Amino acid sequence: MNSRMSRVVGALAILLLAAAPLYLAPFTLTLLNFIGVYALVALGLVLLTGIAGIISFGQAAFMGIGAYATAWLTTRMGLSPWLGLPFALVVTGLGAMVLGAATLQLRGHFLALSTIAWGLAIYFTFGNVEGLGNFNGIRDIPPLSIGGWQLLGSDQIYYVIWIFLLGAMLLSRNLLDSRTGRAMRVLKGGNLLTESLGINAFAVRLATFVIAALFTAVAGWLYAHMNRFISPTPFDATMGIEFLMMAMVGGSGYLLGAVVGAAFITLLKNSVQDYLPLIAPNAAGQLEIVVFSALFILFLQYAREGIVPYVAGWLPEGKPKRPAESEPLPPRDKPATGEPLLSVDKATRRFGGLVAVNEVSFDLRAGEILGLIGPNGAGKSTMFNLLTGAMPVSGGRITFAGRDVTRQPQRAIARAGVARTFQHVKLRPRMTLLDNVLLGAYTRTKSGFVTGALRLDREEERRARSEAMRQLERVGLGDRPYELAGNLPLGTQRVLEIARALAADPVLLVLDEPAAGLRSREKQALGELLHNLRKEGLTILIVEHDMEFVMNLVDRIVVMEFGSKLCEGEPAAIRADERVQEAYLGGSA
Ligand SMILES: Nc1ncnc2c1ncn2[C@@H]1O[C@H](COP(=O)(O)OP(=O)(O)OP(=O)(O)O)[C@@H](O)[C@H]1O
């Protein structure tokens, strides 16, 4: 859909929603209220699971914290439900920070398991605290009221629920289209990629976790004042699983998926509860879970991405406008040509008994192109990891631009101006070429979560986009900024990685085996690109297995063998060196 058409459809949907109390029965409105509340939780999960790749079964527990916080404040302390909202947000936000700090270092299924553990722990805590009414819960929660007018009917709180939901969707949409949103989206590509872009992966994971919990807290607050009675049951593990199902069924990578998923599951649950007794009159309660599970398995088999992308696939695609030309981002300070830039002094790396890099030393000056070559297993990649901070040295010292960076984390080295590419290309395949390149400009821009969500970042964003466009053009990909990176052939993906690195305006560009796996024509195109960059005076360190590929490109070559430096010199001298011929050319090359 083009943006005009989607605006018309959006406006129509909002109009239909706004008029819903006029044409829907109270029961249907109550269902819509539940859908709205659940969609808020699912929206948090879209950000957390669909975007950032963190699976959580524990969102129901966060919803419970929000609900209990406001219920306690309004019934025990007698304060206004409107004060219950900030209170619910603070309590849930703090809870999420503590839990996130304790668990987000875990990976994959360990992290998912931990969410089940704390979800259960919170549920049982609700049931065992006397001040929270134990398993009987808290009743007589006051309704929301506006200037003495109590929002008692389902048609009144309806507006509050849907305004909060639409507001949360708008903030999320803005956020995803911002610098921090891109940082959230890159998390799925793994820590190595994320940190190489100068992004603090843990901080972004934690922030996403807290944002998801805050949306959930709002849902809990709405739920408490809508239902006016809460007990631990609606916040148990089953509900945690249902929320995850909502996000996945709707389409966990899409904001609209939260609403569609919440609607689908709520309506389905409702009709299953209505019709199941007719089919199985003697069945004990909760048989709908069995139906649900069966449907979920079918869904996982046939429409894993969810309903929204499935439907969107049938609609015509829109053509976004090319980013407008804008003032460039401020350039980095770079040392003058010929000044010492990188100094590796007796760098060593051991893996148990194996010395992968053994006291290797070399220097690199600004404006120079250095090739680091050697046969398989010589230690090139390990050396590369040491100087980009992807791996700590076991000994020795690395200095970059006059700073000792020996034990600095990868993101600090990236922020200092070292941009890298990967031997096994690391792009975000479902992001556009433009967004992938924008990731490279992360260290040159500043806007954070709040400025992004409130759209206060537009000026910086315009400049960053224009910069990313320039880099795409520089590498010859300027004609298709909105294509998905995953659609490109390997050779072009490598070129795109280089564009991403260039968007960082690097002081040093480090290329890890850029020619690996390329066909000869792709290799030729890459060679031309690198020659052009060389002419522009870029400082490049290139780690490469293919000796012929680097020979015409570099000023100097360092040859490694068995983890040690074998020799160093200009390409012609290296080519003539007998030791190199023996170790490399005559060997495995
Ligand atoms: N994480 C690791 N754990 C244990 N050993 C490792 C690790 N990484 C590398 N090694 C070992 O260190 C040695 C050097 O490997 P490295 O990958 O740095 O060589 P390379 O020159 O890049 O080789 P290639 O051209 O095949 O990529 C090899 O013997 C390798 O098996």
From TrEMBL:
Its main location: membrane. GO terms for cellular component: plasma membrane. It is found in: Cell membrane. It is a multi-pass membrane protein. Residues 320-340 are annotated as: Disordered. One of its GO terms (molecular function) is branched-chain amino acid transmembrane transporter activity. Residues 320-336 have a biased composition (Basic and acidic residues). Residues 342-587 form the ABC transporter domain. The chain crosses the membrane at residues 34-55, 85-103, 110-126, 157-176, 197-223, 243-268, 275-300. Keywords: ATP-binding, Cell membrane, Membrane, Nucleotide-binding, Transmembrane, Transmembrane helix, Transport. Pfam families: ABC_tran, BCA_ABC_TP_C, BPD_transp_2. PANTHER family: ABC TRANSPORTER ATP-BINDING PROTEIN (PTHR45772:SF2), CONSERVED COMPONENT OF ABC TRANSPORTER FOR NATURAL AMINO ACIDS-RELATED (PTHR45772). This is Branched-chain amino acid ABC transporter ATP-binding protein/permease.
